[in-house]
Amino acid sequence: MAEPDIDLRAQVVVVGAGPAGLAAAHAAAAAGLDVLLLDAAPQAGGQIWRARQGVAAPSVADALARLAGAGGRMLAGVRVTMVLPQRVLLVDGPQGARRVHWERLVLATGARERLLPLPGWTLPGVFGAGGLQALVKGGWPIRGRRVLVAGTGPLLLAAAATLRAEGAHLVGLAEDAGHASLARFAGTLARHPRKAWQALRLGVALAGVPLLRGWRIEAIEGAGRVERVVLVGEDGRRRALACDAVAAGWGLVPQTELAQALDCALAERFGGTAIAVDAAQRSSVAGVFAAGECTGIAGAQAARLQGAIAGNAAASDLGAACVAAPALRAQLAREHAFAAALAATFPLPRDWADRLRDDTLVCRCEDVPWSALRGQPDLRAAKLATRCGMGHCQGRLCHDTLAAVMHWPRLPQRAPLAPTPLATLLAALQDPPDTPSNEELPT
Amino acid sequence: MTTSVMVTITVDGRVLDVRPGTLVAAAVELAAPGRGARVSPGGTRRQPLCGMGVCGECRVTVDGRPHRLGCQLACMPGMEIRTDG
Description:
With 443 residues, chain A is of the alpha/beta class. Chain A contains 14 helices and 21 strands. In chain A, helix 8 runs antiparallel to helix 9.
């Protein structure tokens, strides 16, 4: 294969090929613009429309066909690693480095699961709830294994349904939120028939699974791998459940790292820190739009609507005739009302520090225990003293945790955004254009 | 479901046939259930946590390239995966 040019150009570049990114790319391409859609995963779909054993979900195949039909391009398996001057992103992938030149940029970087430290959470057999769901769709063997699903939020139901459909034996679904807040939420569901229907379908799929409302994990135990979980109830009672795996998550966290590297302002939205946008999905930085979960956790339908609004707005910025947005915005307002209710029902548990023990590893990359962190004054000091946040995840897990548990301000985003081969960083310095293509360098 | 041709790979030298679209992380589990992939600085084996390329607990060496994310990579014919660095 010939070595392609290191420089790629498009009028509209969309980062993230989930529901928001696919909708944004399609809207801009349909308006006649040259569109390039990027994603870190090998296939489009994002987390919610994830392929099962390499076979794309029907909604993704459909969206990709419509994008291709409108002349849009997709580049999968590439990560944005750095923001370069003059509207250029440095990306890294299997074919090496590329510099992606944009006129308008749509950030659709989605969300990640909130994964919180607990005694025993580093044992093999402990996964995020969405995390195990994703792995199982990629062929992780789960048939016949005993799984406890735990944490908070509606994602647990979806993850549990997938695991059960793939043959897992669900020993329980422990929801942090207690009876009172779940009862209030039932009232909200009644006002959103479409969501109520989704909830009902999941309820049927999970019939017979013990639903433990107001129960939370106290400790995960086992010799070298998960063998049992100790749960504690709202009234302080304890119970132990034998299992082979734990799938636990506490909602979602908007992924704002790239937005921060671009200097986009952030705002608190639906229980998380998200990219601040106006009604046209414009960020605080000229030419940069954002859509979907990275602007606040509101679900796939909101993401699609926001993506379409952002794609249209980016296109109209560049002079293309554009679809009217008011109808989309009215639908979006409904989705956001539901998102606000969700955030109120399934908040981040406030007492997390009480759930940690001295030897609980808060930073999994560098094995930093809670005892080394809790006396620190802020994140910067914690990082310098303990290496917490200096490993592979770059603080995406442990700094999220510490920001929430200790109420420490987040540190500014540093480049590169992901661990990056030196050859890729050197590509950023290569003179454009007309220089010979670089060889595939060892990393 | 069509019966697709299996993909042959090796995990730490052991030959394994997996279904097309199987993640490298899943192949590691199929080869040695429960053993894990990455070894933490404290010396304990870890298994993938996030499943979406954030935590890095699934890192393995693939065809000689270290620190590849097993949860973001599908098995390809002839792939050599190592969990021992």
